[in-house]
Specification:
Layout: E1 10-15, H1 22-34, E2 40-46, H2 47-53, H3 57-71, E3 78-84, E4 98-102, H4 113-122, E5 128-130, E6 139-141, H5 143-171, E7 177-181, H6 191-203, E8 210-212, H7 229-250, E9 257-260, H8 270-280, E10 284-288, H9 291-303, H10 305-320, H11 322-326, H12 343-347, H13 351-358, H14 369-376, H15 379-383, H16 388-395, H17 397-418
Parallel strand pairs: 1-2, 1-10, 2-3, 3-4, 4-7, 7-8, 8-9, 9-10
Antiparallel strand pairs: 5-6
């Protein structure tokens, strides 16, 4: 295997749409360190987000480097090329040392029958009853079932291999972290499917250190998990057992761990993840995206004056372009349009009303998850308001930074890593 950059045990993907909050985000990791838990900040931004905002990957690297230098942070940190493929990866090579290879579009496209047969012939250990430590019942995999799984996922894994080798060639001798993402697809991958997938990844000689499967339930943008929490916990624990087995069986990196995408604001499953990490002594990568952008809007609204007025204007314009903004995220949002306030109604709100409607506090009677999801996908509106938007972020920096740090540390880091 090619040399790889060894990933930290706990990594926290921190999306920063406008590359303005790296210092406030890093502060959450500093607070965690002060509480005895080392969390590696991983700044991530996708190709789609760069295109919408008109930025380049170098801006993410510059913001991260500047925040790290200013804070005197001497521990690891990464810059993630988020959800890239062969067509988009070159844009990120120079700035990134973490690559999330997204192969969801290739899932379900049947691999060549001879490739499937060859894979199953090589992996007789996947046939029959498979007892894995930590999982109560054995997997029972017939040859037909392994062939079915391979036919569904083998082409996606082969594509990941192509992208990985392309990055190796482009990065020359520079080490990096490889993640494979399969979460943006219709159906979840079961633990037995994950076992077959990881065997295929090992065949491709990809030194994968984190894998993002699609879990059961809905991971909508900016709001809590929707699904059976107990089922998620069983599935998450079984996946961890599968990973431990494949590390030993196939020589995959010992640092390999699960990644939870759209992981921000999934408050109801954080206790389950926390219990699993303690039980297995393993790491995790949690990827947050738009939660920081929403805290920017909360900070503007909380500041009042021009900040509140701009927050209201962003909402009004997002509402008027709702179909355009929601289309790319249709599978990961559930907006009840009947519950969205009209611009005239919202214009009458004071700072507290706006903040309470947007802040993710399900116990608050004013919290409006539909409004929150619309603003989550509405960052394009703010991008079109530059440089006014960036100027007001600067003017309201104290309020914005306080909300960004508090949100990441108190609502995410504390329940995931510091709970008793």
């Amino acid at each position: 295997m090619n040399q790889y950059l060894q990933i930290s045990k706990y990594t926290f993907g921190m999306g920063d749409r406008f590359a303005q909050q790296a210092t406030a985000q890093l502060q959450a990791c500093i607070l965690a360190s002060q509480h005895g838990v080392e969390i590696c900040p991983t700044w991530n931004k996708s190709n789609r987000e760069h295109n919408i905002i008109g930025s380049e990957p170098a801006s993410v690297r510059a913001a991260a480097d500047a925040a790290v230098k200013a804070a005197g942070w001497h521990k690891p940190y990464y810059v993630d090329a988020d959800h890239i493929g062969l067509k988009t990866v070159d844009r990120f090579v120079a700035a990134s040392d973490f690559f999330t290879i997204d192969v969801a579009d290739f899932i379900g496209n049947a691999a060549e029958s001879r490739s499937v047969k060859s894979f199953v012939d090589r992996h007789e250990e996947l046939l029959g009853q498979i007892h894995l430590p930590g999982i109560a019942l054995p997997f029972n995999l017939s040859r037909a079932e392994v062939e079915r799984i391979a036919a569904k996922y083998l082409l996606a894994v082969q594509e990941a291999g192509k992208v990985y080798r392309h990055i190796v060639a482009a990065k020359s001798a520079k080490a990096f972290i490889t993640e494979i993402s399969m979460d943006e697809t219709d159906s979840p991958q079961t633990p037995p499917e994950l076992l077959v997938i990881l065997a295929a990844i090992a065949d491709e000689k990809i030194p994968i250190q984190t894998i993002a499967p699609k879990f059961t339930g809905r991971f909508n943008k900016g709001v809590d998990y929707k699904g059976d929490v107990l089922q998620f916990e069983r599935e998450f624990n079984d996946d961890l057992c599968v990973i431990a087995h494949t590390i030993k069986c196939y020589g995959l990196p010992e640092t390999m761990k699960l990644s939870v995408h759209s992981g921000s604001d999934k408050f109801s499953i954080y206790p389950a993840i926390h219990r699993a990490l303690r039980q297995h002594g393993c790491g995790v990568h949690l990827k947050t995206a738009g939660t920081t952008w929403l805290e920017e809007i909360i900070g503007l609204a909380e500041h009042g004056g021009k900040g509140l007025q701009l927050a209201k204007e962003i909402y009004a314009k997002a509402l008027s372009h709702i179909d355009e903004l929601c289309a790319p995220y249709a599978t990961v949002i559930d907006i009840d349009r009947a519950k969205l306030p009209t611009p005239a109604e919202l214009n009458g709100w004071n700072s507290e009303q706006f903040v309470r409607a947007l802040r993710h506090n399900p116990a608050d009677s004013l919290f409006n998850p539909s409004l929150r999801q619309l603003l989550h996908v509405g960052f394009k509106v703010a991008a079109n308001m530059n440089p006014l938007y960036l100027k007001l972020l600067e003017d309201c920096e104290t309020s914005v930074a306080r909300n960004v740090t508090y949100n990441l540390f108190e609502r995410h880091v504390r329940p995931l890593f510091l709970a008793e």
